[in-house]
Amino acid sequence: MTVSASVDKLLQLIEFGIHISGIKELKQLMEKVLKTAQDLTYAKMAVFYLVTDDSLELVARRNTHTFHIPDNFHEKKLIPISPNRLAGFCVLNSKIVNISAADRQGLVDTYDLEHELGLLNLQLFHSMLLVPLINQNRKILGVLQLIDSTNNEGDFIPFSESIIPVMESLASQSAVAIQNAQLSRDITSTYYETIFRLSLAAECRDKETANHIFRVSSYSKIIARYAGFTKSFQDMIQYSSPMHDVGKLGIPDSILFKTGKLTPEERILMQSHTEIGWKIFEGSDYEILQMAGRVALSHHEKYDGSGYPKGLKGNIIPVEGRIVAIADVFDALCSIRRYKFSFPTDQVFMNLKSETGHHFDPILLNAFFMGLEEILEVKKKYTVSES
Ligand SMILES: [Fe+2]
Ligand SMILES: [Fe+2]
Questions:
Q1: CA of 29 relative to ligand 2 center, distance in Å
Q2: pLDDT score for 367
């Protein structure tokens, strides 16, 4: 490598380090790692594997310009971490494997090349570089596979030995960033599961189901998207809407499970689940929990002011409450509840439409109907026998 080429690669590495430290999303991170690895080595293809239990899982692939994440079962590839696999060898020995076309034939006897990694036809590769992703505790998180290095003329050449230290540096920076992204993903999943379980505790008291919570959460997100809200608002409403009835935890069993008609006093008590929900989240410093409080308080308000607990009207009702009201009523009308059987879908749509401007915000109801196809997909997927 010439001095200017070395400096150039060093600058690319520094830029890479600065860039990835700010990326928390795993998919985005993998794309950046694969692209930089290709830019540094002029490889035609780059593949990302993560260690899962005793295997390596193909999690992302990048051809010259296109990035791809396997999203169905058939595309997912699991490679056992064993010494007769090149990637397995790379993991077990914690070292880079550099193979040229000349080496290829010699490898056939030792390695199970037929089933090796992401290559469709192994006999066609010209060169391959396997780089283990090792974190600061010497733990291997995955493998970066680069295929077919080229020169300026586009001819296939072996991966240069001088690129190895550069790739080692890229791999160790990537391993730390991936570890952080996985941690942040775990925190988000734990958080969502906690919310979900808390919501379920409340809904179980009302003989509701986990699917109801999931559907309302998904419908709310779809409505928000079709109404033009930002991705972060959509995520916030997805995570806060499951808690709309969490205040039912504070309603006595004698009222919650009463089979006959509620007395006016009991009705007022029942309606107080909105304010109890608000009190649970009041004063939280976290935006999602603040939104959960607003949703809990306002999901029974009606656009024309005839709802409860405050009788708020129109746009004075927090928008998240107006969205969840549509999602929750739609799901209630479609589901079998204690006192009634579900309505046919056509009748549900007519009921919703007849409430535009009365119970529901017309613009948001319009967004609901714009997203109807997706809403019905969620309904189909998350409706099991609830009898
Ligand atoms: Fe409610
Ligand atoms: Fe509900």
A1: 37
A2: 98
Report whether pLDDT(92) > 60: yes
Taking the centre of ligand 2 as the mean of its atom positions, its distance from the CA of residue 232, in whole angstroms, is: 23
Domains of the chain: 3-182 (3.30.450.40), 205-381 (1.10.3210.10)
List, for residues 316-357, the tens digit of each pLDDT value: 999 999 999 999 999 999 886 555 566 788 899 999 999 999
Where in the sequence numbering do the catalytic residues fall?
A: 248
Q: Fill in the DSSP letter of residue 120.
A: S
187-215: per-residue pLDDT in tens? 777 777 787 777 777 766 655 567 888 99
- Please name which ligand lies nearest the alpha carbon of 247: 1
* pLDDT above 80 (res 273): yes
State how far the Cα of 95 lies from the Cα of 89, in Å rounded to an integer.
8
Ligand closest in space to the Cα of 333: 2
Burial 158-171 (b: 16+ CB within 10 A, else e): bbbeebeebbebbb
Task: Please state the rounded mean pLDDT for residues 294-310.
Answer: 98
The C-alpha atoms of residue 191 and residue 199 are separated, in whole angstroms, by 12
Ligand 1 centroid to residue 225 C-alpha, Å: 23
Rounded to the nearest angstrom, the distance between the alpha carbon of 245 and the centre of ligand 1 is 5
Q: Give the ligand whose atoms come closest to the C-alpha of residue 209.
A: 2
| 198 Cβ contact list (under 8 Å, min separation 6) | 243, 246
* 145: helix, strand or coil: strand
CA of 261 from ligand 1 middle (Å) equals 17
Taking 60 as the threshold, does the pLDDT of residue 13 lie above it?
A: yes
Closest of 66, 65, 27, 64 to residue 48, by C-alpha:
27
Strand, helix or coil for residue 107: helix
